[in-house]
Amino acid sequence: MLTIGLIREGKIPPDNRVALTPAQCKWIQQNLSVTIKVQQCEIRCFKDREYIEAGIEVKEDIGDCDVLLGIKEVPVGMLIPGKTYLFFSHTKKMQPYNQKLLQNIISKKITLIDYECLEHDDGTRIIGFGFFAGVVGAHNGMMAYGNRTGAFKLGRVYKQKSFQQLIHTYFGLQLPLLKIAVTGSGRVAHGILEVMNLMEIHEAEPDEYLEKKFDYPVYVHLKGADLYEDKLTCKYSRIGFHEHPENYNCLFKKYISETDILLNGVYWEEKIPRLFEMVDIKKPDFTITTIADISDDRNGSVPCNIGDATMEDPIYGVDKLTGKKTIPYLENSIDIMAVGNLPNELPRDASRYFGEQLIKFILNDLIKGGSKIITNATIVKEGNLTNEFGYLKEYAGL
Ligand SMILES: NC(=O)c1ccc[n+]([C@@H]2O[C@H](COP(=O)([O-])OP(=O)(O)OC[C@H]3O[C@@H](n4cnc5c(N)ncnc54)[C@H](O)[C@@H]3O)[C@@H](O)[C@H]2O)c1
């Protein structure tokens, strides 16, 4: 019988999410040949007491578990040698700040399966928190615009107990004439669209968004083919773009002068063209005043993302001429919402959503072992870098 441990998060700032809720743990123990143990924790969004009430053992030492589930990067000092871990390691893009973590995973003969690398055959990611990042990020972007213009007021998401309660706060919300560009096609984009619809903002097609004058607030949803075209053929192919994004131009610039708020959820890496360049924000037709960069790649698809803000203080300004950080809501600045742990504002809903995907798509493979999905997401196996991730050799110090 497999024993799964839910570890206490150790990253600073503290993360209050968890991979399985008490009700999900109870269901798993009743229906599958799995035992779950939960490491004591005072800041988790589900209290130890809730796990105990669900019949789950809560203890400090979970060293007797076969598989340990976390969320964020596990601090090096908390890694238990020889164990199998699943968490978001943020090492696959050779992120410098996690190099030491990967090196320790190797030296401690650990097996690391990264949630981010669990993919269907066509490369679509299987599990993630993106939906609630999209929800919280879209809300925060709208809130920032309301604060800047004084046209409406939205409160903070984390002050609501649940997504359901957040929805109630939208009752009676009256928005001014607004044009919003939503980018991306994954979970984050779906969360953004959920908020657009809950706020009863109408969707406009890309061509009418550019040409028509509306007397009500609208958003446009820009996906792959609306955003990128091959430099030679002027066409978009998903496979072609994923394999060679450097052969593509970005088409976002034509939307800039028509847009007040950008809610960004695109996937980005170094070779993918940015939505615009830093020089563009100096131009008079750069009318966007508020950007929620939910993708949150510093100097990535949104170049004026000049670093992360925090949940407590999520918005900063960027001066349009100097590109330097300012306080938010200044006349000559663009407001940026860039926070790396957005789902933490709705941790119970986000954890439930994550756990459901984990149970539905991954748990059986974990129990049986040896599946292609798990194998392909295994960065380190018993202290050895796997073939799939051989390109990390130098980064891993081997
Ligand atoms: N700020 C936060 O708290 C937070 C939380 C979750 C996700 N994110 C970030 O938001 C971004 C989007 O996340 P998501 O959950 O929507 O992801 P997702 O995996 O659900 O969707 C990503 C989309 O990007 C496309 N894509 C995937 N690989 C690609 C590639 N190599 N080249 C081009 N396109 C590719 C996919 O087709 C898919 O439509 C990611 O960068 C993620 O790290 C941020």
Order of neighbouring strands in the sheet with most strands: 3-2-1-4-5-6-17-18
| Name of the CATH homologous superfamily of the largest domain | NAD(P)-binding Rossmann-like Domain
State the CATH topology of the largest domain. Answer: Rossmann fold
Report the end-to-end length measured between terminal Cα atoms.
35 Å
> Mean pLDDT, nearest integer?
97
Q: How many β-strand runs? A: 18
One letter per element, helices H and strands E, the order comes to: EHEHEEEHEHHEHEHEHEHEHEEEEEHHEE
Global morphology: globular
Beta-strand residue percentage: 15-25%
> Briefly, what CATH class of the largest domain?
Alpha Beta
Structural class: alpha/beta
Largest sheet: 8 strands, mixed
Question: Could you explain the architecture of this structure?
Answer:
The chain has 398 residues and is an alpha/beta fold. The chain folds into two domains: 2-127 and 347-392, NAD(P)-binding Rossmann-like Domain (Rossmann fold); 130-345, NAD(P)-binding Rossmann-like Domain (Rossmann fold, 3-Layer(aba) Sandwich), CATH 3.40.50.720. The protein is 28% helix and 17% strand. The protein has helices at residues 22-31, 48-53, 99-107, 130-149, 163-168, 187-198, 206-211, 224-227, 238-243, 253-256, 347-368, 372-376, and strands at 2-6, 34-39, 57-59, 67-69, 84-87, 111-114, 179-183, 202-203, 218-222, 228-230, 248-250, 261-264, 290-293, 315-319, 325-326, 333-337, 378-381, 384-385. The strands form three sheets. The protein has an eight-stranded mixed sheet with strand order 3-2-1-4-5-6-17-18. The protein has an eight-stranded mixed sheet with strand order 8-9-7-12-13-16-14-15. It has a two-stranded antiparallel ribbon with strand order 10-11. α3 (99-107) links the parallel β5 and β6 (111-114). The chain is globular. It starts with a strand and ends in a 13-residue tail after the last strand. The mean pLDDT is 97. It binds nicotinamide-adenine-dinucleotide (NAD). The site of nicotinamide-adenine-dinucleotide (NAD) has 24 residues, from α4, α6 and α9. Residues 5-136 form the Alanine dehydrogenase/pyridine nucleotide transhydrogenase N-terminal domain.
